[in-house]
Amino acid sequence: MESLYLISFGEIALKGENRPFFERILMQRIKQALRPYDENMRLQKTHGRIYCFTKASREEVLNSLEKVFGIVYISPAISCENHMDQIKQTALEVMKSQNYAGKTFKVETRRPNKSFPLKSPEVSREAGAHLLRNLEGLKVDVHKPEIQLDIEIREKTFIYCEKVPGPGGLPLGCNGKAMLLLSGGIDSPVAAYMLMKRGVEIEPIYFHSFPFTSDRAKEKVIDLCRVLVEYSGHMRLHVVNFTEALKELGEKTPDDFLTIMMRRMMVRIAQKTAESVGAKALVTGESLGQVASQTLEALVATNEVATMPIFRPLIGFDKIEIMDLAKKIGTYDISIEPYADCCTVFVPEHPKARPNISGVHEAERGLKVEKLTELGLKDIEIIDVKP
Ligand code: ATP
Ligand code: MG
User: Residue 105 is part of a domain; what is its CATH number?
Assistant: First the structure.
């Protein structure tokens, strides 16, 4: 049997002239998320709401829509004609589906359809009285009810009790594309989530240094992408063979500058790759002061080689906060698997925590930067990751 869900999308309703654009993308994302469960699902849009009619199970609907950015909440609903008798009957049906005994409730009515003869408070009162007459153990509390029954009178009437939270944010793809420097760690997948939540499509790039880092480390990065694509549908992961560049960095630059050199090389290669796929910014999982390579001076030194913006959405987060988010989005357990990436394998004993720019330039003098960039760009594997 077909069920009905009301999808509410707070923020994008405010976007003035851009609204149709945001709504169209959101509808596409909802379809994309539900199609694997129901090819024939239907969507219908009205002011500030999307109605979804589907044969998918409640669990399938809620689990997939919980990952569609732009959705504020999802309400399993029942609809009826705009007649008070039917509204009362349907309200009763909806309330019966709840665990209502001994609970307090209130009815809240909205009436965008002004041709309906009764005013909102009158509808609430009549429906509320009908519930009290027909269900035992229910009490009214208009201030802090345990159950709120919503009635929305539009071209039809929609009645619901539950508001299952969505992830909020903006629909993915409404804000262009960025390239994420994705390591196997805890931070960068969370950074991806933060940007995706603001509507940015993510194309990840991973610097792989076999045999210094095992192929299991690469698998781990692919596994992380598999979690991220639950939010995005698909993702093209770029795996750079970084081994030769890394060897040369190791030979030709002072030890204490190695991490900074590595990071600058990564940014150069990532940026060129980003340009080639139409990504307009880079994203990293850096957080201010977390490690020696993430002091303000080190970030300045990394930034110097970039011409496109580098977004660091975790810049002000504590590790604990990042870990909590990683657990919430489902990447944490993969991130803590023990396969080291090159930054961990090549940590110098005394990394330069506060490099000044002239020192950085000095350290980089012996390097053929352009040649190394080309070397990285020449050997990139692209992996299409799907859920
Ligand atoms: P993460 O948990 O994201 O690995 P981290 O705390 O381990 O971060 P670093 O290893 O210093 O920090 O890396 C800082 C950022 O540099 C990462 O968040 C990521 O964006 C980028 N980065 C580091 N190593 C790689 C790599 N091998 N490939 C791609 N990006 C990387
Ligand atoms: Mg790391």
Answer: 3.30.2130.30
In a domain, 172, yes or no: no
Helix, strand, coil content of the chain in percent (nearest 5): 45, 20, 35
Distances (CA, A) of 3 to 27, 76, 357: 18, 8, 62
| Mutate-to-test residue for ligand 1 from 343, 344, 380, highest number of ligand atoms within 8 A of CB | 343
Ligand 1 pocket mutation pick from 179, 180, 182, 183 by most atoms within 8 angstroms of CB: 183
In a domain, 217, yes or no: yes
Range of the domain at 245: 177-385
List the beta strands (DSSP E) in the chain: 3-8, 42-46, 49-54, 73-80, 104-110, 139-140, 147-153, 157-160, 164-165, 177-181, 201-208, 235-241, 282-283, 310-311, 380-385
- The verdict on pTM exceeding 0.85 is yes
Atom of ligand 1 nearest to the CA of 341: 27
CA distance 335 to 183: 9
| Ligand 1 neighbourhood includes 182 CB (under 6 angstroms) | yes
pLDDT tens digits for range 61-108? 999 999 999 999 999 999 999 999 999 999 999 999 999 989 999 999
Tokens of 162: 């539950």
